[in-house]
Amino acid sequence: MSKNYVMLAEINSQLTGLSSWIGNDLGLFALRLFLHLIVIFIIVRFLYYSKTKRRDYLFTYFLISTVIFLLSYMLESVKLEIGMALGLFAVFGIIRYRTMQIPIKEMTYLFIVIGVAVINALANNGVSMAELLASNIVIILITWSLEQLWRIPHVSSKVVQYDRIELIVPSRSQELKDDLRNRLGLDIFRFEVGKVDFLKDTAKLVVYYKTTDPNNTNMADDIENYTVIQQDN
After folding, report:
1. Nearest to 214 by CA among 151, 143, 159
2. Residues ≥6 apart with Cβ < 8 Å to 132
3. Minimal CB count within 10 Å: which of 80, 87, 118, 198?
4. Global pTM?
5. ∠152-154-159 over CA atoms, to 5°?
6. How far apart (Å, rounded) are the C-alpha atoms in residues 210 and 216?
7. In terms of DSSP H, where are the helices of the chain?
8. 177-210, pLDDT tens digit by residue?
9. Phi first, then psi: what are they for 208, rounded to 5°?
10. CA 112 to chain CA centroid, nearest Å
11. Distance between CA 220 and CA 233 in Å, rounded?
12. Beta bridge partners of 207
């Protein structure tokens, strides 16, 4: 009887310890993951998507950020050499897709979601939940402020296949600029002349213009290599 009592007490002790362990660790993990997903949802869905309307990056940002969070959280208790740790996150920080180059704004948001994931996953016991929440709120507020409040003109560019090559000479640069303004409807302040094809009477131009329209602030994504032969300010 005493042996059965001791065995039951031992089993009860183990179950109690297991329950306590699951309750503490799993509860903390769930709380951090919930906080992380809420912050990423606000940044990606309401700050990024509301301005760019690019649904393809929503999938990328959510999954990359979640994977980084889980990876960082699971490796928190694993002793890593500093070089390996930096190299691990550098791999995710310099992601470059083969099909296209990621624009600078999208790369910035990629860095933000990775940074938020690392912060939320690796905050140790010395950092309270209030401090962690405050850090996430600061990131959200700064991102929102730069997107909404900082209304400064943005320089955008377009690649144009131009058909009036008689205007590309330096002496007629103002005529070329006026023609581009009339045909594109943009306030063009500078242009660059690239490849010229005399057989087809066309020239490749890169035109630069200022805009405050948040939906028209992406730089030309597919500017090919060109040799500038003239530039007008």
Report:
1. 151
2. 32, 35, 119, 120, 123
3. 198
4. 0.58
5. 170
6. 10
7. 2-21, 27-41, 49-52, 55-75, 82-93, 104-122, 129-148, 173-184
8. 999 999 988 888 888 898 899 888 899 998 888 7
9. -120, 135
10. 6
11. 20
12. 158, 191
β-strands 188-197, 202-211 pairing: antiparallel
Q: pLDDT class for 227, splitting at 50, 70, 90?
A: very low
Q: How far apart are CA 39 and CA 54, in angstroms?
A: 19
Q: Identity (one letter) of the amino acid at 118? A: V
Buried b (16+ CB within 10 A) or exposed e, 142-166: ebeeeeeeeeeeeebbbebebeebe
End-to-end CA distance of the chain: 97
Measure the CA–CA gap between 16 and 23, rounded to whole angstroms.
10
Q: What is the pLDDT of residue 67?
A: 84
The pLDDT of residue 162: 92
